[in-house]
Specification:
Length: 358
């Protein structure tokens, strides 16, 4: 697939597939790549928005389609309404606010797509049974079942719902890029991007808001609290240092209006912020210096305590047990910004606006 040459920093809602086995960094700003697996809706999107050209090597073709809301509307809308209700209770400091309920609802919402994409062979026994005509039409009427004892597949090992997960993630990327395209220079103005949000210089705010308010299209692009809308999470403090390493690995400082003080946000994917020492005291796992070193291209090791539950054993008299152990994870900088190459580029930033989906 090829894209017309763009300005430096231009990136797209798809990236090349690394087939080298080296697990290298994904280059979202590549102008041309050999291997790419994308759905038909994304193909139309990159053709219309970016002038992409490509050759089809092979594909899975369907001659009929159904709106996703037919399958997921009742579930997602009910869960979103329950979360929105709890958000109102939380803002109003109401006695009806239930943090456990809100966390559970959010988990069901966020984990839904991941479950649709899971490999059934991870489990000893899995069944996917369509219970309505629409699902049977899309998925077929078979049942995925994996033998319980020997852990080997019995029948098909294909997750028939995987296409739903793919289309959900495809839609989320297209929605995100509809917001990105509201910036004056589109993706060139983006400082950092997450799955459901983006950071950009505050100097672009007026133009961005103007374009969002006048958006005309097929996506729920708007500022607000409805599903798919965008809202401001926080604005960084002028002169503060923001460090962006990769998705869910960044550090920013903003002013908390409610608490009337500066607040530091540290994000490190897959690593908890705090852990317990052997004597029970609490200590931070990573901090400002961790991000400073990563920005210089220096890998960082982070160790923290964890618990492992062993509920089942081979012997009939096995007793459930919980053991503690230490986990050490190393965070590596992007291979393009190693210490030998001088680390990450430094940009003179003004106030930074962070916006994310509702």
């Amino acid at each position: 697939m090829k894209f017309p040459r763009q300005d430096k920093g231009f990136f797209k809602p798809i990236c090349p597939v690394d087939l080298s086995g080296n697990k290298g960094s994904l280059e979202w700003d590549a102008e041309e790549f050999e291997h790419c697996y994308i759905d038909s809706e994304m193909i139309k999107y990159v053709q219309e928005e970016y002038g992409a050209t490509f050759d089809v090597v092979r594909g899975l073709v369907s001659y009929r389609q159904r709106p996703g809301i037919d399958f997921f509307g009742p579930y997602v809308q009910a869960m979103f309404a329950a979360k929105a209700e709890q958000d109102v209770y939380k803002r109003e400091n109401s006695d009806q606010y239930n943090p456990a309920l809100r966390a559970a609802v959010k988990l069901f919402l966020n984990g839904y797509t991941g479950k649709l994409l899971e490999d059934p062979r991870r489990y000893k026994k899995t069944k996917v049974v369509p219970n309505d005509e629409a699902t049977k039409f899309i998925c077929g009427s078979g049942v995925v079942e994996v033998a319980e004892e020997e852990g080997k597949k019995k029948g098909s090992d294909i997750n028939p719902d995987v296409l739903f997960g793919i289309m959900m993630y495809s839609y989320s990327k297209r929605l995100l890029f509809e917001y990105i395209n509201c910036l004056p220079n589109r993706s060139t103005d983006v400082i950092h991007v997450e799955t459901d949000g983006l950071f950009f210089n505050y100097e672009h705010w007026d133009t961005f808001l103007y374009n969002v308010e006048r958006y005309v299209g097929d996506y729920p692009v708007a500022m607000g609290k409805q599903l798919g809308n965008l809202e401001v999470e926080y604005t960084t403090i002028p002169g503060s240092e923001s460090i962006f390493i990769s998705k869910k690995v960044y550090r920013v400082v903003y002013y908390d209006e409610k608490k009337k003080k500066n607040k530091e946000v540290l994000k490190m994917k897959g690593i908890r912020k705090k852990t317990l020492n052997p004597d029970g005291t609490e200590r931070p796992v990573f901090g400002y210096e961790t991000f400073k070193n990563l920005a210089k291209g220096i890998p960082q090791k982070n160790s923290f305590g964890a618990l492992k539950k062993i509920l089942y054993g081979k012997d009939a008299d096995h007793k459930p047990e919980i053991i503690s152990y230490t986990v050490t994870k190393t965070v590596f900088p992007d291979k393009r910004y190693t210490e030998e190459k001088g680390g990450y580029p430094v940009y003179p930033l003004k106030d930074t606006e962070e916006l994310s989906y509702v």
